[in-house]
Amino acid sequence: MKKGLVVFSSGEVGALRMAIACLSLLPFAIQHLRAVAPDKWKYLAGAGMLGNFIPAFLFAYAETRLASGLAGVLNSLTALFTLLIGAMLFRQPITWMRMLGIVVGFIGTVVLIFSGNGSTDLDNKYFGLYIVLATVCYGASVNIIKHRLQGTKPIIISSLAMLLVGPLALGYLFTTEVTYKLQHIPGAWEAFMYIAILAVVGTAMALVLFNKLIHISTTLFASSTTYLIPIVALMWGVLDGETIQLWHYVGMVVILAGVYIVNRAK
Fold first, then answer.
1. EamA domain: which residues (predicted)?
2. Which residues of 161-183 are buried (b: 16+ CB within 10 A; e: fewer)?
């Protein structure tokens, strides 16, 4: 995302990501068009919008002002919102220990967003709220897939969900300056290449694997993959020249502690 934002706007990055991911999964979508019952299409649309389309734009917009490492840590709130939405909308049991994990996670989020100085000034910190909103969408999508699309093959969920949101992204791209930038802006094709890698590897392939994990496990276990995202995001952030401050580490630890409590609680 950071490399793509060097040339393209956040909206263009989000739309390109969705369009390319849709095209990469298109052969599978065409193959399985008749494999889903009519009443399941609304859930596929919900999974596509909440699990992919909306977060793609929210993350890209947040990354214009927020360090990648911090964005990755905030993404670990997905497990907390998966539990909370599952309890509120899908009658999943929630214990006091799990509620404690949610509270701890929120405290860590507040510390992370409103700590530090320098490049992460007050205006920048509020951009973390866009990541939080994206994790709410992720939590809803995970529950929809688990409780409304259970039994549907992961490749079918992934490809058809992207098929439903891909045209929206393509339509949006026609209103942007993507074509002009590719033709006239130096470095545009390199930035496009990074977005393509993000779309194929970080969206299309990752989506199939993640939906497979939801299929064979619980929603909380699947969403606990967010443990690894902060580590990877921080590594890339440091390599990209970003700085992480002491209070950021405190917030990260508290968030991960909250996620850990949620996933360990009975």
1. 1-113, 129-263
2. bbbbbbebbeebbeeeebeebee
- Domain range for 153 is 4-264
Q: Give, as one character, the DSSP assignment of residue 64.
A: T
**DSSP-assigned letter for residue 34:** T
The verdict on pTM exceeding 0.70 is yes
CA angle centred on 128, ends 122 and 131, rounded to 5°: 165
User: What is the per-residue pLDDT across 136-179, written as a single tens digit (0 to 9) for each?
Assistant: 999 999 999 999 999 899 999 999 999 999 999 999 999 999 99
31 contacts 158 by C-beta, under 8 angstroms: no
Q: Is 220 helix (H, G, I), strand (E, B) or coil?
A: helix
CB 144 within 8 A of CB 72: no
Closest CA to 119 of 158, 173, 68: 68
The whole-angstrom separation of Cα 81 and Cα 99 is 11
Count: domains in the chain: 1
